[in-house]
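Structure tokens
________________
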Amino acid sequence: MHYECVKAVEEAARLLEELGHKVEEAQPEVDGKGIANSYLALCFGEVAAEMEEIKAKLGRKVKTSDVENLTWTLGLLGRTLSAGDFARATREWGIAGRAVGRFHQRYDLYLTPTLAYPPVRVGELQPKPYERLLMKAVNALGLA
């Protein structure tokens, strides 16, 4: 976590205390890594499904030139996942939801940063030239 993000939460907690609220440090018992992995699986699967919708709308096979390189790569990754992988990823969110529900049986509010790091500038997340080249090669060869 970036210092500024932690600082913002601490300042909000102090303000809540000053306003008369009881504030204590606690967190739901959620597997953060499991949620992150399941998010990626669901994201990749959704892109693969979206590529099938594009195919249906175009009435032909989707070509790499029809979408951005990153979209094509995510679609390739999504097609490597099984229905079982997708179901397990969905279940992970159910497990996390129940953990957060148990947390809220005791606490009214879960105060947490929206992001772990300050927002990036527009365009900052664009793939670097070597990453674009690698994606083009992976996409051209269908190497998910």
Observations:
- The mean pLDDT is 94.
- The two ends are 31 Å apart (CA to CA).
- The chain has one domain: 3-118.
- The helical segments are 3-18, 32-58, 69-79, 83-106, 129-141.
